[in-house]
Amino acid sequence: MAARAAVSPQTMSAVRHSKAVPASEYLLQIEGMRKEFPGVVALDDVRFALKRGTVHALMGENGAGKSTLMKIIAGIYQPDAGSIRLKGVDIRLDSPLDALENGIAMIHQELNLMNFMTVAENIWIRREPLNALGLVDHARMHRITSELFTRLNIDIDPEAEIRSLSVANRQMVEIAKAVSYESDVLIMDEPTSALTEREVAHLFQIIRDLREQGIGIIYITHKMNELFEIADEFSVFRDGRFIGTHAASDVTRDDIIRMMVGREITQMFPKEEVPIGEVVLSVKDLGLGSTFSGVSFDLRAGEILGVAGLVGSGRSNVAEALFGVTPATHGTIELFGKPETIDSPYKAIRLGMAFLTEDRKETGCFLALGVQENMQMAVLHENFVRGGFVTESAVGEACKQMCATLRVKTPGLGERIENLSGGNQQKVLVGRWLLTQPKVLILDEPTRGIDVGAKAEIHRLVTELARSGVAVLMISSEMPEVLGMSDRVMVMHEGRVTGILDRAEADQVKIMDLAAK
Amino acid sequence: MSTQSTSSASAPLEAVVRRRRWPQEVNILLVLLGIALLFELLGWFVQGQSFLFNYNRLQIMILQVAVIGIIAVGVTQVIITGGIDLSSGSVVAATAMIAASFAQSSDWARVIYPGLTDLPFFVPLLVGLGVGLLAGLVNGSLIAYTKIPPFIATLGMMVSARGISRWYTNGNPVSGFTEDFTMIGDGLGRWMPVVIFLVVALIFHIALRYTRYGKFTYAIGANQQAARVSGINIERHLIKVYAIAGLLAGLAGVVAIARIKTAQAGMGMMYELDAIAAAVIGGVSLAGGQGRITGAVIGALILGVMISGFTFLRVDAYYQDIIKGGIIVAAVVVDQYRQRRRKKS
User: Fold this and answer.
1) Within a domain: residue B36?
2) What rounded mean pLDDT belongs to chain A?
3) What topology does CATH give the domain A279-515?
4) How confident is the model at residue B16 (pLDDT cuts 50, 70, 90)?
5) Fewer beta carbons within 10 angstroms: which end of chain A, N or C?
């Protein structure tokens, strides 16, 4: 990276303060950007350009590379290749602080404010105005905060503690903080996800004011209507690649969806027609607080029901509610025609359910334990235990066979699972649930972050399970996987089911249309 | 954990994975032997006599280790779940005071009431175990159901149990135990506490390695969320683990008073830290999910050998504590280093 000719942040900072910034049509230009993470190329030869005084929306599916690109622009990640030109000058950003000092501020989806400090303290942190004695000058801090808020037309008490503010007001504080850095580039990551309609209107007014002042705003969103309301231009990303930039006025909603999903399905999926049996799981009007509501569907033996939707659409929450991790607050669940209250994972396991969670590290693996310990944990409730003692020989044999069936590559059953590759870890976790011989298998992102070979094997396995009569609910953000594996596809958006498509009628455009309502 | 070859026919060995080394406990045992030999050598040079080959010194050392060791067996299980128990020392004192009041001989009272009989030894023993169990159940329930950190819950118990031990006799010591009862501390040629310690250690070594209780204990410490999704009732299991730790602290209290033949409200001071130190020195990770009873036993022995060795070399007690503190910190530093190396690999 050091080899790249680039102006250091210090120089840029000096240039900025001299106000002698070269005029240029583009505030920000990105060329040839590449970023790899272990096992996955997050960005591949991406370009992007932001004009002065525009709102530029970024669109794309989960994992398309939007967030990675923004994190590079905000100095959080360092790129493997590619250049960043800020107002026509090549720059290098080594840290978020570098980015801030260069006038690039990012407002993250999850807010980064200190709850027990006041609004003013949060905004001017690290840059507090000092008095002659070198102590913080609170009166002046209050005054400059008020001035800032007047300019942005925000009505918040600078002395209020952050924790007493609503989410919308915290968002405003974040924006004010970003503006206080006299930023030229402002990145907003789904800023409206927690706002009411009126708050959104206020936010948009602020965004328009900032645009008037010549600031360039990068706006990440999943909401199509917002794009048409606020954006001047938009860029679409797909699978880590840049697809195109267009003016928002030139296109229709359908055009955008086509750009977002327009990929060939090249991977092979061993979808087999298997006889679909009786209804095994019947869910009616399931809801959990304000997270999701009105979720109803039937799942039959041998059927694979894919669940599509964007991150935050409530898919995983439904799975967790079904499995009793966070029990649902209303609605009914029927298993084999019998109404059941599932208030704990233990109950769900006893009823013949299994749940492969989304996050292998957080909720799946016992990283410090061995392969066998990981595999046997869910089956020890009912089997392989006599008088409290684990029958080591029997459960060891069962795990050994399961490893062979799933082709887990490990030096031994005692090997710590953290020494295995992601794909093999995932197989061990799949094995954990297969040992319990489930009738209903819930898979949440079963192939996320694993290599192509392991992916194919898990697909093959799921198909075989369906053939043997297991009912499968498969949540996935990978469109080809959903389309290739599912008998039906249920699409969710903002905590609601927006449609259930049959295999014959499901395609990428229809799914994306339902997912991005 | 088995290191034997498994389904190697269909699962070829991956070259990238390092081979398993011998268990960490072997390293700790070597440290113990090294320290003992060091004192032996220093003994010959400084004192002109053997450190190890002295029956009385060895017995005193191991008796000291036994009480801390019994506590450490319980605390080790708590630490494996990712928790901590600061209350053991105070629970030892509370148990000791209450159990002691049931262990007193009636020799003097019989002068006036000739019909009085002594309570059999198992009454104070069971009372002591009961008090410890109760303290553990309170700890466990607080942690499981109010979700307060184990540090706070057991800190509260540490202060309260110490208060109970003072309140129970208004701060007066209790002594004059029946001979029956003192056998718990003196029996088998004064080796009884050691036998109790070893039996307790063996029972829980087996429990942790071969029972569902043990598997679930490690699972909760390794990843509580994953344990929950695997159907483990975290709340109920944590209560069990803390109850066992309390029970063992109670047992330690009974054994301690039976050996020293008096109970005082101030006893057991800092035992909780010695027990935690024994576990940590023995390779039980404060991060949870890792460690064995054998490690904690060796850890307790290391502490015992150090104290005994310093006394033997006539090192001032103040220096002993300073050095002990250093050793505990060093053990945690080593643990952290191991964790980091694990994460990197």
Assistant:
1) no
2) 88
3) Rossmann fold (3.40.50)
4) very low
5) N
Predicted confidence band at A7 (pLDDT cuts at 50, 70, 90)?
Answer: low
B232 touches chain A (CB under 8 A): yes
User: Is B139 inside a domain boundary?
Assistant: yes
Residue B270's domain comprises 50-344
Q: Are B62 and B197 in contact (CB under 8 A)?
A: no
Residues of chain A with CATH 3.40.50.300: 1-103+184-189+215-262, 279-515
pLDDT at B226 over 60: yes
In a domain, B325, yes or no: yes
Question: DSSP H helical segments within A307-388, as ranges?
Answer: 315-322, 345-350, 371-376
Return the CATH fold of A1-103+184-189+215-262. Answer: Rossmann fold (3.40.50)
Q: Which of A127-131, A303-307, B216-220 has the lowest mean pLDDT?
A: A127-131
pLDDT tens track for B118-130? 889 999 999 999 9
Q: Is the pLDDT of residue B2 over 60?
A: no
Tell if the CB–CB gap between A345 and B7 is shorter than 8 Å.
no
Q: Is B225 on the interface with A (CB under 8 A)?
A: yes
Residue among A344, A366, A412 minimizing CB distance to B226: A366
Residue closest to B291 by CA, chosen among B302, B276, B303 = B276
Position B195 in a domain: yes
A116 CA: distance to closest CA in chain B (Å): 21
Question: Which residues in chain A are closer than 8 Å to B203, comparing Cβ atoms?
Answer: none
Q: ipTM of the predicted structure?
A: 0.84
Which CATH number is B59's domain given?
Answer: 1.10.3470
Which chain B positions have a beta carbon within 8 Å of A412's beta carbon? 2-6, 20
Contact B6 A420 (CB under 8 A): no
Q: Which residues of B touch A390 (CB under 8 A)?
A: 210-212, 215
Domains: count for chain B: 1
